[in-house]
Amino acid sequence: MDYVNLGRTGLKVSRLALGCMTFGSSEWAPWVLGFEDSAKILRQAVDLGINFFDTADMYSLGKSEEITGKVLLDLVPRHKLVIATKLFHPMSTDINDRSLSRKHILDAVDGSLKRLGTDYIDLYQLHRFDYGTPLEETLEALNDVVRAGKVRYLGASSMHAWQFMKAIGMQRQNGWAPFVSMQPHYNLIYREEEREMLPLCLSEGVGVVPWSPLARGRLAGRADGETTRGQTDNTARSLYDRTKAADDAVIAALKAVAQRHDRPMAQVAYAWVASRPVVTAPIVGISKPAQFEDAVKALDISLTAEDVADLERGYLPKPIAGHV
User: Fold this and answer.
1) Residue numbers annotated as active site
2) In Å, what is the CA distance from 265 to each residue of 40, 50, 210, 217?
3) What's the pLDDT tens digit per position in 229-258?
4) Where are the alpha helices (DSSP H) in the chain?
């Protein structure tokens, strides 16, 4: 496993981040794995040299954090791990147990620390932009949790580029802890972030850790409904069902390039994302240990200029998806 700096920071992360949304409780979603199955995947990730783990408080309403922290800290000394989590989405029916208010940030960070079983979070990320809270309030509270030693670095996820740059400007103006990473929705059939967000991250030295690099399995060649998640994942349908016809040309090109390299489609789809100059580490979601093979082997694929042109040629502009 290779390791790279996260943006302009000195923090070294593996070239793959393991997404931990799959770990938790099937009561939250039928495709989520319980403790033992989750532990097998986390152990394999450690064996492969992955040190970067991405979860969120809302995944299985905290159980993902509990499992991730318990398993990893039994395997690896804390200083060898880069644990990332996120906040924003509701954690209960309580009106204040959500969003990015100062109250919720201070409560949420303590809740995540307790569930993870650690006294600091390496990368604390805004899961989404909060239109109902003044941005200054959010950013000052984030600065406070960094200065208190509870958080080492700050990141954000899907939002508009102007919102992200406004936040960065406020942080600089006030001497607050800065955002060092962005977690955007990005893959071969959703490339809208190339218009503004990715150039912004490249210009500002912000690390990019894309989510859904396989477009919820569509770029792995899996048919709709082939898996439990495919049958029940409403988020996947909201992201991709509107654009199926427009995606056919890209998926056909992906299949052709994969055949040219004698590789599975998933490996080439991962390789394309990982090879983009601004990308630090794609977030890979693993529900079966065998799926690691595609993610890891993708890092060894060298796509030619012809490959990249073929993969990108058929793309058509899409409506913004993934910001809510």
Assistant:
1) 59
2) 25, 22, 18, 10
3) 665 566 666 777 666 777 999 999 999 999
4) 35-47, 63-75, 102-116, 135-147, 161-174, 197-204, 228-232, 234-240, 244-261, 265-275, 292-298, 305-313
